[in-house]
Design goal:
about 110 residues, alpha+beta, YaeB-like fold, five-stranded mixed β-sheet, elongated
Length: about 110
């Protein structure tokens, strides 16, 4: 059974901005970014529990080829809620940990829920 994916408005905006940025860098690269995103989203639909929790009840799936992480929560047995799409995952995650740890990361995610 496939999970239903739901996106926060912030996640949708971040995806659109990333596509535009990549397209400006090189024609066609924005479409490749979307293809990588769609591939990862199909994986999430089929097996959302495959990816590790980064904080309580929040998981992160990395995009292949692009430096982005998809932060999401699984709700019940049918819904996967996409909260954030963050660029430069390694650097930003390290900066979040240095500047406030998991509490700061959780705060950013809670902001996306409300």
């Amino acid at each position: 059974m496939a999970f239903c994916l739901k996106f926060s408005s912030r996640a949708l905006r971040e995806i659109g901005e990333a596509q535009e940025w990549y397209e400006l860098q090189s024609p066609g690269l924005g479409e490749e970014f979307i293809a990588a995103m769609e591939l990862q989203l199909k994986r999430l639909e089929q097996a959302p529990l495959l990816y590790a929790e980064v904080i309580h009840n929040v998981r992160r799936a990395l995009l292949p080829r692009f430096p982005y992480g998809l932060f999401y929560a699984v709700r019940g047995f049918w819904l996967c809620y996409m909260m954030l799409v963050i660029r430069d995952v390694g650097l930003k995650t390290a900066n979040i940990v240095r500047s406030g740890g998991k509490a700061r990361c959780a705060e950013l995610i809670v902001q996306c829920l409300f």
